[in-house]
Amino acid sequence: MTATHAIETNALRKVFGDNVAVRGLTLTVEQGEVFGFLGPNGAGKTTSIKMLLGLAAPTAGAAWLLGAPLGDRPTRAKIGFLPEHFRFHDWLTAQEFMTLHGELYGMTAETRRRRSADLLERVGLTPFRDKQLRTFSKGMLQRVGLAQALLNEPALVFLDEPTSGLDPVGRRLVRDIIGDLRRQGTTVFLNSHLLSEIEITCDRVAFIKHGEVLRVSALKGLVTGETSVTIHAAGLTDDMAAGLSAWGQDVRVDGEQVTLAVADDQALPQIARYLVEQGAALYAMTPQRLSLEDLFIQIVGTDGGL
After folding, report:
1. Cβ distance 238 to 69 under 8 Å?
2. Residues 15 and 147 occupy one common structural domain
3. What is the C-alpha separation between 97 and 85, in angstroms, rounded?
């Protein structure tokens, strides 16, 4: 485990009977970054998060959080979590809910009061602090859940679909809070099906399918414009196609057509020169800017939505 890694997993696997939910998750998340987790429905995203949080035992593999192995109690006290399907104590008021979680963390009464007041104000729920959670809308419950996830001033926060029940104002509030966490050096692990939220918010993103990481990309490259290149050439060999990996990723060959993703347009003349020097007959090279949605479809495929 490297000291700079907030999360590190090695072939983490989870099997339920005959169902393999997570085949072998291997990834690293650096401390202080906002890391996105993307994949189609059934890709094993939520199961992976549950294993990291100790809510589900791995069938095989290993993982570390903040430098400690899974299950380390002092480390768990430094982690916050907002689940996708929350089941809060709906007979409690928002203030009582925050107090309960503060007591579970072992906070002093003064710290509980201060943190609860600050966070309920931050998520816009101060006017509703004495209302029972059963009277809250889904969006309000999501906000109070976010507040409790940050109550212990965590070093690492897992947010599982944090904006699914929110209106545009609520989604903007969550983005602002995540931005504040990044500036404070807090690591955020974000699972969301809203690609626009991931693209705006995250530093890097992992694309997973069947519980395996297909690719990890820096979002800065996407914002500035990662390019998909389609090449039409005759005389291509397997060695030529393999050589294209020196300039890009996800090299795919279909007859006389090759596609790959490059981070810099300056690679295009180098690719053309390489193919010609290798003896291929180059007919066309078509670059196209990729959005995060384009990249998702290209890497993960179309069999299953987010």
Report:
1. no
2. yes
3. 17
- pLDDT tens digits along 193-230: 777 788 888 999 998 888 788 888 887 655 455 677 89
How many CB atoms are closer than 10 A to CB 11?
Answer: 15
Write out the DSSP string of 270-300.
HHHHHHHHTT-EEEEEEEEE--HHHHHHHHH
Q: Are residues 16 and 59 in the same domain?
A: yes
What domain range includes position 211? 5-221
State both tokens at 218. Answer: 């820096």
> Domains in the chain: how many in total?
2
Nearest to 203 by CA among 225, 185, 221: 221
Determine the Cα–Cα distance for residues 61 and 67; give it in Å rounded to an integer: 16
SS (H, E, C) 264-277: CCCHHHHHHHHHHH
Q: What is the pTM of this model?
A: 0.77
Q: Could you tell me which residue, 302 or 27, shows the higher pLDDT?
A: 27
Q: Are 234 and 283 in contact (CB under 8 A)?
A: yes
Domain end, chosen from 221, 250, 273, is at: 221
